[in-house]
# Entry
Amino acid sequence: MDPVAALKRVAYLMERERAEARRATAFRKAARRLEELDPQELERRIAAGTLTELPDVGQRTAGVATEAAQGRVPDYLAALEERAGVSLAEGGETVRGWLRGDLHTHSEWSDGGTPIIDMARAAIDLGHDYLALTDHSPRLTVARGLSPERLREQLDVVAELNAELAPFRILTGIEVDILDDGSLDQEPELLARLDVVVASVHSKLRMDGRAMTRRMVAAVEHPLVDVLGHCTGRLITGGRGTRPESEFDPEAVFGACLENDVAVEINSRPERRDPPTRLLEMVVELGCLVSIDTDAHAPGQLEFLAYGCARAEEAGVPRDRIVNALPLDDLLAWTNR
Ligand SMILES: [Zn+2]
Ligand SMILES: [Zn+2]
# Structure
């Protein structure tokens, strides 16, 4: 087993099972450090036991790399693999079988933890046909939102990667902030160039319900918006603490989604579970389009789809309402509507 692959696999499985982020990050950093080494030096250091002299490589990461180089499955990895044999969620397998990709993910260009290529390769390994890269927009400075210049630069990088990865496709995209007045936080001509536009509220989540309704409806009515991200903004568990749902008129907002063919996101992140069940039921009843997304910030989190699928199945979301059950060409026909 390749030492770098072993380290990355450990990180992936930690991300999947929601281990502490810094632990997975330590394995990612060590993997990157070894990846940058000349292969002969790597071999030499493994033989001499001097991997830990390198920055970012500790006892544990060096141990995993060394065991892998010796042709064994590292013990540390074996334990993780065993747990990975158990599915993350109960139910949802049928819906999961329908899905062709994921429309909401982040890379290290904003607040994600890995290069775009690592996210894409993980998506390919999961059998996805496509993955939308939706890094944050400029105003979300805490998440290193992309300026127009950096987003343009990213589009060139994605074009190169797509040439290499075809027929798999990285869809260009953005998770664009819905500003207080419902306008979007990116240049319109740039939004128009993207395959997928996810629009989300990240600021002033506690604003008055009527103002929030106007704000969200305005965003949904924007002709370039495809997906309404994590609509209530709630956090129900996890390291960032909890946060109540934003107040808005759900019939007005989901009605606007229906009218504008905008998909309501089922955000699969366990700390979000957004929309809550009563709102998800309303979405199904109204007949809205739905996008089941991970909002992954690391490759292993791409498996969070299992959580969203279980919820979609329980709520009875029909296959023909799920946009990421569409084959690539049909999906693009919808986003270009
Ligand atoms: Zn978001
Ligand atoms: Zn996101």
